[in-house]
């Protein structure tokens, strides 16, 4: 548990865009564009004066998706476009599927460091991805005669397709889920049933959402903007969510050796962004900012790359141990659904209660824009905890290459 002398860090503002389906409504916007929308909304909800923001930490995985290859400036450009002080430094983090959570972990660390090392008190942490724009790359070598010329030939790579393979471990992301699911005795029927369940929950959440007069999905805001070509954009729902059935899902081909993974029970390729404002509690009190939700602990762990999907298990256990909590203390879970087989393995190994896990649907229905997902998990978790009066919540994700990340947050307005 946090030492009484350790500074407390709160989430003073949080927001996410709807997630757009691949090549859909948001596909004409870069990750930078989407991040600016999410950050501006989070700042507005927080009520902080932008001049008080000390640093920016941005997460993005698929580089080279912005026009003019401006991705190397991603977090800096977002900060500048959101009018935070130019003196506030910006940092890009990349932990594949856990990048959005890592952006929060990194911002947390900057605040918790002694003032003599890092004097940040307010950090803007965000994640964004436009997977629709993942490019092809022609890997032609440069000419020795003229550095600015390229030799003929070269290998053409689909950046997204090739990155789904993990060459060092001689596997692929879907095969790791398949292998883990097989080890945990998960069946294809269970995977398809869960995929349908995820979509059903997501559809119900939208029916109960603020956009339909309810109080669900309060972390999401409607995107009203323009594509680069001037086309108006209005999106007020997660675009990947659809109506499906076991009959449809069961007929889709198995893509892996054990046939557990199909196009219907894997996370959707998508576009989106999410952002949070992290503030040291004393500073938040001084400025009159919201202090209700506090970061309690986090965990990051490595696992066998061949069962990458197991990553949340040790990461969650690590976070619980640091917080001196048990699984039964957690009243709400957000665990990324990279693949149904992977999620079901984690659910089974940790003996999670499905009634309080991914209650508004997960990535199979909502989408999994890699850099944005981790931040989205925290945004949705926070607002749903408030809606349900839950004291402790945990968000977690498996990570390509064999890692897991988890974070526990607490509603400080509820009694211990």
Explain this structure.
With 416 residues, the protein is of the alpha+beta class. The chain has a domain of 271 residues: 3-Layer(aba) Sandwich (Peroxisomal Thiolase, Chain A, domain 1), CATH 3.40.47.10. The protein contains twelve helices and 16 strands. Strands 1, 2, 3, 4, 5 and 12 form a six-stranded mixed β-sheet that branches. A four-stranded mixed β-sheet has the order 13-16-15-14. Strand 8 and strand 9 form a beta hairpin. The longest helix has 20 residues. The model has no long low-confidence stretch (mean pLDDT 95).
Which helices and strands occur, and which strands form pairs?
Blueprint: E1 9-16, E2 20-21, H1 31-46, E3 55-59, H2 74-81, E4 90-93, H3 99-112, E5 122-130, E6 136-139, E7 155-158, H4 159-163, E8 165-166, E9 171-172, H5 173-183, H6 188-207, E10 223-226, E11 232-235, H7 246-250, E12 270-280, H8 281-287, E13 293-302, H9 312-323, E14 332-335, H10 340-350, H11 363-366, H12 370-388, E15 392-399, E16 403-411
Parallel strand pairs: 3-4, 3-5, 14-15
Antiparallel strand pairs: 1-12, 2-12, 5-12, 6-7, 8-9, 10-11, 13-16, 15-16
Helix pairs in contact: 1-2, 3-12, 5-10
């Amino acid at each position: 548990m946090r030492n009484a002398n350790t500074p407390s860090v709160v989430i003073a503002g949080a927001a996410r865009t709807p997630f757009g389906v691949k090549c859909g409504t948001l596909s004409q916007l870069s990750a930078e564009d989407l991040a600016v929308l999410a950050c501006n909304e989070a700042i507005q909800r927080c009520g902080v004066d932008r001049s008080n923001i000390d640093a920016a930490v941005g997460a993005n995985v698929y580089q080279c998706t912005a026009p003019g290859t401006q991705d190397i400036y991603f977090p800096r450009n977002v900060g500048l476009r959101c009018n935070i002080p130019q003196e506030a430094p910006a940092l890009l983090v990349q932990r594949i599927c856990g990048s959005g959570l890592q952006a929060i972990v990194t911002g947390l660390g900057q605040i918790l460091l002694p003032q003599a090392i890092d004097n940040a008190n307010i950090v803007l942490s965000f994640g964004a991805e436009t997977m629709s724009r993942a490019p092809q790359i022609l890997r032609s070598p440069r000419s020795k005669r003229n550095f600015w010329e390229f030799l003929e030939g070269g290998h053409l790579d689909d950046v997204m397709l090739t990155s789904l393979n993990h060459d060092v471990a001689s596997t692929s992301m879907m095969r790791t889920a398949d292998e883990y699911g097989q080890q945990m005795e998960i069946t294809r029927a269970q995977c398809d049933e869960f995929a349908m369940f995820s979509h059903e929950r997501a559809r119900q959440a939208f029916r109960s959402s603020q956009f339909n007069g309810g109080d669900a999905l309060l972390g999401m805001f409607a995107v009203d903007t323009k594509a680069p070509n001037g086309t108006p954009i209005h999106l007020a729902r997660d675009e990947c969510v659809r109506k499906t059935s076991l009959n449809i899902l069961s007929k889709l081909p198995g893509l892996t050796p054990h046939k557990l993974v199909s196009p219907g029970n894997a996370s959707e390729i998508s576009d989106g962004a999410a952002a949070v404002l992290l503030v040291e509690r004393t500073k938040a009190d001084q400025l009159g900012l919201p202090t209700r939700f506090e970061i309690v602990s986090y965990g990051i762990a490595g696992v066998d790359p061949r069962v990458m999907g197991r990553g949340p298990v040790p990461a969650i256990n690590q976070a619980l141990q640091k917080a001196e909590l048990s699984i039964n203390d957690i009243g709400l879970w957000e665990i990324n659904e990279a693949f149904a087989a992977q999620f079901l393995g984690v659910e089974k190994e940790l003996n999670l209660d499905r009634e309080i896990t991914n209650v508004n649907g997960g990535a199979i229905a909502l989408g999994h824009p890699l850099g944005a997902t981790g931040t989205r998990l925290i945004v949705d978790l926070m607002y749903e905890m408030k809606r349900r009066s839950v004291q402790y919540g945990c968000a977690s994700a498996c990570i390509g290459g064999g890692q897991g990340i988890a974070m526990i947050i607490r509603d400080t307005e509820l009694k211990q």
